[in-house]
Amino acid sequence: APPVDGGSRRPGEKTARRDHQDLAHRAVDVDPSLAARGTRHSGPKRRGSNQAGDPPSPSQRTEMSHGLHVNVKGDARVPLMDVSGNEMNNVNRFPSSKLKLDEFFLNWLSSPESQKLVLNLLDDAKAGRPLQAPTLPQTPAATSPLSPSSTNALFSAAPSLATPPLSPQKGAHTPPPGSPISPARFGRSGGAGGGKEGQGSGPPGGGVKDGQGSKRRAADVIPRFYFADERLAYSDEQSAVKLAEAALLFNGGELDAEGMVQVTREVCELPGYFAPLLMHRVNGTEPIAEDPTGADASAAPGALTAPAQTPAPVTWTKFTEYWNGTLRKYTEPNARVFEVLRGGEKKGSNANGSGLNIPHLTHQDFRSVLRCVLDTHPGLEFLKDSPEFQDRYLETVTYRIFYQVNVAWNGRMTLREMRRSNLLEAMTHVDEEEDINKVLKYFSYEHFYVIYCKFWELDTDHDFLIDKEDLLRYGNHALTYRAVDRVFSQAPRRFVSGVDGKMGYEDFCWFVLSEEDKGNPLALEYWMRCVDLDGDGILSPSECSFFYEEQLQRMECLSQEPVLFEDILCQMSDMLHPEVPGRITLRDLRRCKLAGNFFNVLFNLNKFIAFETRDPFLIRQEREEPHLTEWDRFARQEYIRLSMEEEEGMQDGNWDGDGMDPSPF
């Protein structure tokens, strides 16, 4: 800030302005001219200025805009706020902090005590009366809108505005600048004044003495302004309306699974097939019948194929208790679905060793609702006589959900991941749509049919495991040996089959979804890990060349005109536009809509040739159906092909003779 007297700076001012930490431990006193001016003119007193009651001149207003100043030891004048300095730059650099401070201030200002205090201070300022500090109430239950430190620093009685607050005693313990110390520890150490009354004020938030001389915590004085997720709960009026609707449906009795469907949809605002699971949550019973002895492998603890238990009827009293204890807390649909699926268990994901206890969902939490979908949905009635395929459908839907929603790839779905996905939208669509194949996200039977038939074709010995040689036959030998080697080295994702060198059904679901929908961000990450040989998160030309060498050999064997790697690298750079030339990152791939073709060029010859000779009719068809993904188009074509092959096989009797490969369906 410029000198207030138009001349050179006063002695000691430069040192005082630089050393902000020493300034915090000096005795600070307000300029006496501020008290004489009152609250109308907050600028510093200038040589030759008007009297206290006169309006400020233009030069005074310019000087006042530079901010307030205080006197410190050494006769230095230090600005309280210099709006032309780096402070405003810091505020502009962090706009989120400014918004949060505004939110805190508005919450504080909205309280009746704060409004009353502000109005009283404004009346005193207009009338020219000295500003008096607000008196703290003597009742412990009451609260004051200002902390004790703010009250003493801002007001502290009008006659004492020119009197600086007392500095801490020399023998007292004072925390060094920048060292955090909790109010409780500071209070136990005696405060800044060594514990002697009248010889120093405690730290902000340390403690304050009320009118009776008893010390109170600052948390009891400052009004609460942060409520976490409590504001997401139903209010008393909203909860009463919901319970009134439920009371009409219960009609003083109890409801079975069929009667609870309407309560689940209208009162709890959940899909109708959540009714059996909701009844188990209300009654406190387990929704799945597991065999703890392990005699039945299909009903073993944690098995997705374990059968569901029939819930007991729900009474009005139990439903009211569950509503007030659980459902009332969640007005947000995703949080409500998450809590019902999770149940009352407090499962924490400490796999990363961080010690955090984060609620999450596992594969087993979806068993009950998916069993209900299989039993009640009209589009899946034909599977009631085929329990084996019901289990496969349940597993496939669960794997697809976690592939798309659980972006951390750890098998623990958090509420944040669910909120960022379209899972709730798909669940609601299943409850409203009678044709299950129109629900393309997760639940389509046609999509399940394609995935399972693809796995059945590769698993020639039908042991539900696939080795490297089996996977090489995928897509009519579309993938290169090097790409398959990287998949079985578990570079993209660690296998969960539990058998070395073998890929299970869940592992295959991740592979086929990533292979046939390379435009998916998760698929890009899957293949990014596969091609990234050194694991540094960057694809270099040498790594790309390693995979493309085998593509060149295959082109020559098929009498295709080979394309040199230098030309391919130039084309891919023009397509991806990496931020750093020659260094392709996952961010570069996700910014490009044609990033999937980049991986096809490296290790999928069939799709590479199809892209180079693509049919204009298919391009126009893709433009007419922009809502369909690459996986949706692939599944539709494969389902038609597999259905025709199955019909032809049934007519010819190829699957009825001895020694023929039976169909999975």
Give a brief outline of the structure:
With 665 residues, the protein is mainly alpha-helical. It contains 31 helices and nine strands.
Set out the fold topology:
Blueprint lengths: L12 H6 L1 H4 L5 E2 L1 H6 L20 H7 L4 E4 L3 E4 L6 H8 L1 H15 L2 H16 L20 H7 L28 H6 L19 E2 L5 E2 L1 H4 L14 H15 L3 E2 L1 H11 L7 H9 L30 E2 H10 L7 H10 L24 H10 L10 H19 L9 H5 L3 H10 L12 H14 L9 H5 L8 H8 L16 H12 L4 H11 L6 E2 L1 H17 L7 H12 L7 E2 H6 L3 H9 L1 H8 L3 H9 L5 H23 L13
Antiparallel strand pairs: 1-2, 2-3, 4-5, 6-7, 8-9
What does this structure look like?
- 47% of the residues lie in helices and 3% in strands.
- It contains 31 helices and 9 strands.
- The N and C termini lie far apart (83 Å).
- Residues 1-56, 58-85, 138-151, 153-206, 347-356 and 656-660 have low confidence and may be disordered.
List keywords for this structure.
single chain, 665 residues, mainly alpha, two-stranded antiparallel sheet, 3% strand, disordered N terminus
